[in-house]
Specification:
This protein is 88% helix and 0% strand. The protein has a domain of 138 residues. It is mostly helical.
Length: 357
């Protein structure tokens, strides 16, 4: 195959790939409800698998030091879920109380935002028409976003009992995953065709090297940021500090845009109280972002992904477009897996060409 034919083949492959992606996005109204149904059913299993993935290295270290594997699993299991249950037991009444208070205060908050927007409109009444129109567009956009945010908050609050029932399965599923870890690996090995077993093992090892430290490090960093933000918001007397701290901690897993997304609810709540609180909230968010970007992430996470920031941003835009907040959270891990897959595919095709010669 000459050089021109190779480029024609590659161009045809790219065009076919773009067509498949375009068709996939156009069929979104068909596959999205199905995916949502299956996704909801698989939530506890996915969380349990994630928890098992986090705990497995600790279990292995204890086992290598001479502790019986079953005992090490039970010990780590009880420490992790016991600690999680204790924190949930202490925090849940506060979270429920803050949610109830937030739902009751929604009309008051809406009135406060309306007054703020009216004040801005009055103070800009004498501005040039072009600037005033832009401000009006920004106000309209802001009002729509606030309305959507409040509706989402109400929707997720009503779904909370269902999620609690689903999450109750997590400890049980996680225990069996940890207990039967090697059995699961053996089953996966037997189900994999013999021709690609070695390559599959190398592929999974490279994914673990690329993602393992990143995921575990991000969990620790998000927990630290969540605790610090809750404490600092509480110190400046921002309402719903625990709820807002949890949101900031969870959204911090999204590179670059996470702190901004997490800060929006805190700024909205603070805006209903005073301008001074808004300034303090912004200072806290930027301070935590500086702490995370310059100290916590380099120290705990490191540069495990080895990907250009522009590539990460592109994956975030695509993930956000397809899956919203969930898409933003899983975009970077999926990108890391795709990167490893492309690297292995190149090696595989190179070997095939060498064999063909």
């Amino acid at each position: 195959m000459n050089v021109s034919m190779k480029w024609i083949y590659r161009l045809g492959f790219l065009l076919l790939l773009f067509f498949v992606i375009f068709l996939f996005l156009k069929l979104r109204p068909i596959w999205k409800p199905i995916c949502l149904t299956f996704g909801k059913a698989l939530i506890p299993f996915g969380i349990a698998a994630f928890v098992s993935y986090l705990l497995h290295p600790v279990v292995e270290k204890l086992h290598k030091k001479g502790m019986n594997r079953s005992i090490s699993i039970i010990l780590i299991y009880l420490l992790f879920f016991g600690g999680a249950a204790f924190v949930t037991y202490k925090a849940m009444p506060v979270i429920v109380s803050e949610l109830e208070d937030l739902m009751q205060s929604t009309p008051y908050l809406a009135d406060q935002y309306t007054d703020i927007l009216q004040t801005i409109n009055e103070k800009t009444a004498n501005w040039p028409v072009q600037f005033k129109n832009r401000i009006q567009d920004a106000i309209g956009f802001f009002e729509k976003k606030v309305e959507v945010l409040l509706m989402k908050a109400m929707e997720y609050t009503l779904m909370l009992p269902d999620f609690i029932l689903l999450f109750a399965l997590v400890p049980l599923v996680a225990f069996y995953l940890l207990k039967d870890w090697f059995l699961i690996k053996k089953t996966a090995w037997n189900m994999t065709p013999s021709k690609v077993r070695k390559q599959s093992v190398a592929f999974m090892r490279d994914i673990e090297q690329s993602l393992g430290s990143y995921i575990r490090g991000q969990v620790i960093v998000c927990a630290v940021i969540g605790v610090l933000s809750t404490l600092l918001l509480w110190l400046i007397h921002v309402k719903y500090s625990l709820l807002l701290g949890i949101i900031i901690g969870i959204t911090n897993v999204i590179p670059y845009f996470g702190p901004i997304i997490g800060a929006v609810p805190a700024v909205l709540i603070a805006a209903a109280t005073s301008t001074g609180q808004v300034i303090w909230v912004v200072v806290i968010v930027f301070g935590l972002q500086f702490l995370e970007g310059n100290i916590l992430s380099p120290l705990i996470v490191g540069k495990s992904l080895h990907m250009h920031p522009l590539l990460i941003m592109l994956s975030l835009f695509i993930g956000g477009e397809i899956g919203g907040i969930i898409g933003l959270i899983v975009a970077v891990p999926i990108l890391a897996i795709v990167k490893v897959a492309i690297s292995h595919a190149r090696v595989h095709f190179k070997r095939q060409r060498q064999v063909g010669k």
